Amino acid sequence: xxxxxxxxxxxxxxxxxPTGDMRVPGVIFASRELVTAMDEKVYSQVCNVATLPxxxxxxxxxxxxxxxxxxxxxxVAAFDPAxxxxxxxxxxxxxxxxxxxxxxxxxxEQVLTHxxxxxxxxxxxxxxxxxxxxxxHLSTPEMDAMLxxxxxxxxxxxxxxxxxxxRIEEHGCMHGAQPExxxxxxxxxxxxxxxxxxxxxHYLEMQRxxxxxxxxxxxxxxxxxxxxxxxxxxxxRGLGHQIGTEFLKRMVKEAQSHGIHLPDRELACAxxxxxxxxxxxxxxxxxxxxxxxxxxxxxxxxxxxIAQLFPQAHLELLYDxxxxxxxxxxxxxxxxxxxxxxxxxxxxxxxxPGHPDLPAALMDAGxxxxxxxxxxxxxxxxxxxxxxxxxxFSSACHGAGRSMSRRQAxxxxxxxxxxxxxxxxxxxVRSPSKRGIAEExxxxxxxxxxxxxxxxxxxxxxxxxxxxxxxxxxx
Length: 475
Hints:
Elements: E1 7-10, E2 13-16, E3 26-29, H1 32-37, H2 40-49, E4 55-66, E5 73-79, E6 85-86, E7 98-103, H3 108-113, H4 115-125, H5 140-156, H6 184-190, E8 203-212, H7 215-221, E9 228-234, H8 237-257, E10 270-271, H9 275-309, E11 317-322, E12 324-333, E13 336-345, E14 348-349, E15 368-371, E16 379-383, H10 389-392, E17 395-396, H11 406-412, H12 415-424, E18 428-430, H13 434-439, H14 448-457, E19 462-474
Helix pairs in contact: 4-9, 5-9, 6-8, 8-9
């Protein structure tokens, strides 16, 4: 990206001043190194989002931002409920894709002694890969109940524990979901996909805590040096993708009928108060519940898999947070409290300490922000900090962020070579697809160390702990 077009506000904050149809500035949070390496399309997409009706304050991009569909991945934008729009491209196709982290109570010695068996068992018990299906088949009434109830429904069906719900955003159930707004085809796509990881960058990973940055927050989160944690990264699978596909088509027509000029067709949107806008909100919220239920069922399967080798282990949930959503939230803008629809696409909610939506045990520390790395690099736990709500509507990065397309990655690396190279470093990867491993090669991503450092220096969140992969089940 050409830095000459950006106004530096600090070492990690860059402004794009409004020009043309832009209603607000663009703001990119990243180090000079990360901004320079960003695709020019990120610049264009940040500017394009800034033209949408009802946008408030600025169009934001996180340190891991890269080109996406309409909105950049790593994009954040908030809209006024009365004058604003909602965009399926601002949520993404994998609605409520997110990360949850589990405590295991296991030691590094236990895991390393049984590393091969753990990799084999988890790969056998957790369905992964393109079009993967599980043992659970939902009838139409069950599907509607799941879309309305989310993780709460999963727990009621015996997939998970009631204690989990306190540590899931929205307490495991997104209110306002409308299963009737989800097409029959989308529901059919999902009937056999509950409890599955899917493909792409989705994974289940056993990780070892190798560094603590903030002792107080780590204690509140239950994180200690050499702890073994499990991270699960996935979303709403085929249902979310179908919702996005169908509503993008509707939104193109809706935008035209309301005279909304779209600088890019992929920015298709609808006024929030329109029938299409309200239908999408209902369907998207159902998609959020699908993802929350999916991760809860995978957690249940993971507990069963670990119990086969370590019957004494009890996997407690640290936190579950999504990074592809649009939610109605209260924020202070220019000294006044306002309700806004906040789009986060490849961006994680990062609530500050004291926020009323936090569980009591996390109130003083701030919300855990779970940042996935790659199969061969560290992941991080961050925490929301005081004042982060004034930076980008309490938002932070969500991962390393791609620096190379999947096609380019497969031309650069062999899946087998990547897998063998990681095994030589003590990281066991299991996947149904060697091509999928090549697409997700660590070298295809940005430097996650620089990403999280930038997020901290920009005042978006603070680093709490670093975790290194030991076993990765990859879709």
